[in-house]
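HUMAN: Please help interpret these tokens:
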Amino acid sequence: MNSIDLAFTPPSEKGIPIEALIPPDCKDLAWMQAVDWELVERRVAERFAQIGQPKDAPLPTRLAVSLAIFNYKTGHLPEDAPHAWSEMPMYQFLSGATHYKMELPCDPTVYCRWRKHFGEAELEALIDSLGVVPRARYKHTIRHESVSLEEGFGRLQEGILRQIKKMEEKSRNPKPSKRKKSSKPKKTATKPQTPKAPEMQPFLPGFPQDND
């Protein structure tokens, strides 16, 4: 896949270009561009050749696997993926979308049936075989909240502005480089020891004294 231009592009009649919503310092961009979709299409076709096509769950392979990768990476449940679609434009880019959409381009129940037909273990093995997708460390659910189109765009714009502000602050106030601690032990100054004076024995009359 060719690298995308991260510069802002004015909205067209189709909507906002998806690359305009990707932060320049996005850590997920590298592995998303490394996904071999030809390999994914071939593996999915081989699986369906064994078990048959999902007649009640027609879904484009790239969209279905992108949603599955979202579940795999973030730890969200399958039924949560459609609700997070509007707030995570990176996964719209992963699915091959060129313009941002507020709503998932499929029925959420169709995606859940597609997963069930494909097989949870087989789907996890497919994603593992790609070797590029970071795995989730925990599982949780997200709260679905209905928002208007304007409010959704406002949230995305606020998030991008926050990231830009952080980058500007880092450039203005770079952190000073820490000096490496020397592994050599520090030399400690030793005080010279003064010799002790010999002990004097008391003189007692009538007793012989030892002469050294």
Notes: DSSP finds eight helices and no strands in the chain. Residues 149-172 form the longest helix (24 residues). Helices lie at 29-33, 37-51, 61-74, 81-84, 89-94, 108-118, 120-130, 149-172. The CA atoms of residues 20 and 144 lie 25 Å apart.
